[in-house]
Amino acid sequence: MTHLVKAVVSLMERRGPAPRVAPPRVGADLVLRDYARIPLDLYRHLYDAVGRPHHWTSRLLPDAALSAQIHAPGMAVFVLEADGRPVGWFELEASRQGRRTRIVHFGIMPEFRGQGFARHLLARAIEAALATGAEVVTLETNSLDHPAALPLYTEAGFVCVDKRFVATPAIED
């Protein structure tokens, strides 16, 4: 029997230009890679490292289904690297209806948290979303996500426009 965990999901929106955020001073070369077709093994590594503690399950799919979702038209995955190591990543979905782009997933790898990367990467995610022609950038966060997520999004100008309650399968080790 699958154990379910309850969560409050907040739908957030933001309008206007991306915030100006300086990259963290880390003594490493930072590169933001835009993957037109991210390799499935890399995607799974990023998704699991960031999402497992927060019960992310939407992309736990067989190869064909995962590829159909993340390689679909309008989807883009970006990975921030420091000296070739993944620091964090985000996934965008440009809307087919209107001028909206959704940040589907956003996260910092556990070993890089608390070093100033999140603000920088979120600003880059907003820039990339706006570059799709979006006037509105949206995302969802929930009460199971990292405790710094909601304050980070609010600081970056996102406002909550709706909430809903869900039950999601727990990831149990």
- Any idea what the CATH superfamily is called? Gcn5-related N-acetyltransferase (GNAT)
Helix/strand class: alpha+beta
In the CATH hierarchy, what is the architecture at level 2?
3-Layer(aba) Sandwich
Shape from CA axes? globular
In N-to-C order, the SSE pattern is EEHHEEEHEHE
First-residue to last-residue Cα separation: 14 Å
Strand tally is 7
Task: Say what oligomer this is.
Answer: single chain
Enumerate the spans where pLDDT stays under 50 for 5 or more consecutive residues: none
Main CATH class = Alpha Beta
Largest sheet: 7 strands, mixed
Q: Give the helix tally.
A: 4
Q: Provide the domain count.
A: 1
- What is the residue-averaged pLDDT? 91
Beta-strand content estimate: 35-45%
Question: Which radius of gyration do the C-alpha atoms yield?
Answer: 16 Å
Task: State the helical fraction.
Answer: 10-25%
Strand order in the largest sheet = 2-3-4-5-6-1-7
Description of the structure:
- InterPro entries: Acyl_CoA_acyltransferase (IPR016181), Bact_Acetyltransf (IPR050832), GNAT_dom (IPR000182).
- Keywords: Acyltransferase, Transferase.
- One of its GO terms (molecular function) is acyltransferase activity, transferring groups other than amino-acyl groups.
- This protein is α+β, with helices and mostly antiparallel strands and 173 residues long.
- The protein has one domain (4-17, 28-169): Aminopeptidase (3-Layer(aba) Sandwich), CATH 3.40.630.30.
- The chain is 24% helix and 36% strand.
- The protein contains four helices and seven strands.
- The protein has helices at residues 40-51, 63-70, 117-130, 149-155, and strands spanning 4-15, 30-35, 75-82, 85-94, 100-108, 136-142, 159-169.
- It has a seven-stranded mixed beta sheet with strand order 2-3-4-5-6-1-7, sandwiched between helices.
- A hairpin with a 5-residue loop joins strand 4 (85-94) and strand 5 (100-108).
- The longest helix is centred in the last third of the chain and has 14 residues, at 117-130.
- The protein starts with a strand and ends with a strand.
- The model has no long low-confidence stretch (mean pLDDT 91).
